[in-house]
Amino acid sequence: MAKFEIREEFYLDDSKFKILSGAVHYFRINPSQWEDTLFNLKAIGFNTVETYIPWNVHEPYEGKFDFHGINDVEKFLEIAKNLGLYVILRPSPYICAEWEFGGLPAWLLKDKEIKLRSSDTKFINKLRNYYEELLSRLIKYQITKDGPVLMMQVENEYGSYGNEKEYLKIIASIMRENGIDVPLFTSDGTWIEALESGSLIEENIFVAGNFGSKSKENCQILKKFISENGKEWPLMCMEYWDGWFNRWGEGVIRRDAIDLAEDVREMLKVGSINLYMFRGGTNFGFMNGCSARGNNDLPQVTSYDYDAVLTEWGNPTDKYYELQKVIKSLYPNIEQLDPRKRILKNLGSYKVDGAVSLMSIISEISEERHTIYTHSMEDLDCNYGYILYRTKIKNYHHDENLKIIDASDRCHIYIDEKFMAVQYKEEIGEEVKFSSKNESISVDILVENLGRVNYGHKLNSSTQRKGIKGGVMINNHFQSGWIQYPLPFSKEMISKIKFEENIVSKVETPMFYRFNVELENIYDTFIDCSKYGKGCIFVNGFNIGRYWSKGPIQYLYLPSGFLKKKNEIIIFETENILIEKLEFNDKPIFSNI
Fold first, then answer.
1. DSSP-derived secondary structure letter, 412
2. In a domain, 344, yes or no
């Protein structure tokens, strides 16, 4: 049984050990690619893989746990072990990671009084229930049990959020009570306020830093903090940022490969490293995070390529080869191998063979929820995706005024199933005028949750509750009598869609389009979304993510692991764009922003 210790250096079986690690998120990569990705990590000369564990993935509804398929963290750990890699686990309640709500489950928001990331008993009790389920699965993978896991994180960048030490102590205590006996750590930005607020150094819990350049300067601050607190520990950057994430409507962020390689060389001269990210992967489904800038929420794109060492689809970049040179120059005896590469193909073009409007089948795929006034998505157990609000009003035969009060995030307004307006953040609350010839006027409002913030003060803000929270005013009074249709677009919900064979020639409401795709040979590919407006795409019932004409990405990456010989691909389009073709490509497509 191996032994890992943190003294003045890291020690593995009483020999000094340099941690050369890269971040790989199993929940962002099709399981069929886990082994190739981890092989490429080892091939560059690294000895460790690091991954977050997102709470919202593994407990999507309170008390209902999911550790299957892409969420099978145990299988991921087994692969790492079989390849001879060590593992750093970060099962903290909050992960950031540009992931929906920073990994916190949205169902927490049903309780209007709960205080997230705090010692609030309500929050801690829910965390304790999750940890009892999760940690029981992780115990056997600790290095103390002859597994690959070297250490685990308590909380993530808490010093950039709060300073309640009692909260941190409670998490550490729960982890120990549930059998975690490897070293624990915290990781924060390397400025004194963050380190003091987010660490438990007084409890002998290891302190790591997060940064992406100026290695000597950042390590000096980290070293000073550690020594001033009476410890003699090695220096480690737990997140050495080698790229960055992207938001809708902004340009793609890139970092020069040689610049990164030289910064990594500098870091390795003074300490250990975890590259964030080694492979970024994809924000499948509705799991993209959201930035908060002032009062604005800025949702992030489906691709989590991150300009990382491996591409979104797992192939080596220039950074890979430059880093491999640096590792070899610093550690000449280290074993390095040629990386594995994935083949990407253009799988052709396919005509639509079925279409149907959301409005015509809404009651067949979603359960009607009747309330007097509008409810939030969380109150209706619709944590992600969309929700449709429907009511009817009497026609007074004059121009009507509609105003949506306190809604998040993007609202499409339809009168008698015809598009009237779209409102997003700044416009929500503005009056929309409409009229109708019908004696009874149908009003539909489709609200999309664009993703909850993953970092900053808004985690505990009411703005992260989605849907229409305040109500809808029509002609200066709050309208009562609503039917609400939750649309999380689960695999089961998608399977209920019945398509019409007569293809429409004009669209005025959100539409589903079906494509039957038969393949002789299966490869990774990209779906070309450059002619679409906004929506998401389902491949054999699995939501591979959102697309949006705002860019910068105008594609969705489709791993071969989601494909089979006969495939049903469904596009949900909200911008009244008629879709007649599904086109694949062998490379990603970007807009010129």
1. E
2. no
- The answer to whether residues 326 and 432 belong to one domain is no
Query: How confident is the model over 351-371, as pLDDT tens digits?
Result: 999 999 999 999 999 999 999
Mean pLDDT of 58-79: 98
Judge whether 157 counts as a catalytic residue.
yes
- Options 155, 157, 448, 568, the catalytic residue: 157
CB 245 within 8 A of CB 587: no
Is pTM beyond 0.85? Reply is: yes
Could you tell me if 82 and 198 lie in one domain? yes
CATH classification at residue 405:
2.60.120.260
Q: How far is CA 501 from CA 212, 364, 489, 513, 573, in A?
A: 54, 18, 22, 11, 18
281: containing domain: 17-330
132 catalytic per annotation: no
For residues 26 and 130, state if they share a domain: yes
Task: Give the residue carrying structure tokens 């073009």.
Answer: 349
Check residue 520 and give left, alpha or beta (phi > 0: left; psi -120 to 50: alpha). alpha
CB atoms within 10 A of CB 136: 11
Give me the catalytic one of 50, 239, 312, 400: 239
253 class by beta-carbon count within 10 Å (0-12 exposed, 13-18 middle, 19+ buried) = middle
Question: Given the structure tokens 């808490």, which residue do they identify?
Answer: 158
The CATH number that applies at residue 65 is 3.20.20.80
Residues 541 and 448 in one domain: no
pLDDT digits (tens, 9 = 90+) for 8-32: 999 999 999 999 999 999 999 999 9
Are residues 494 and 475 both part of a single domain? no
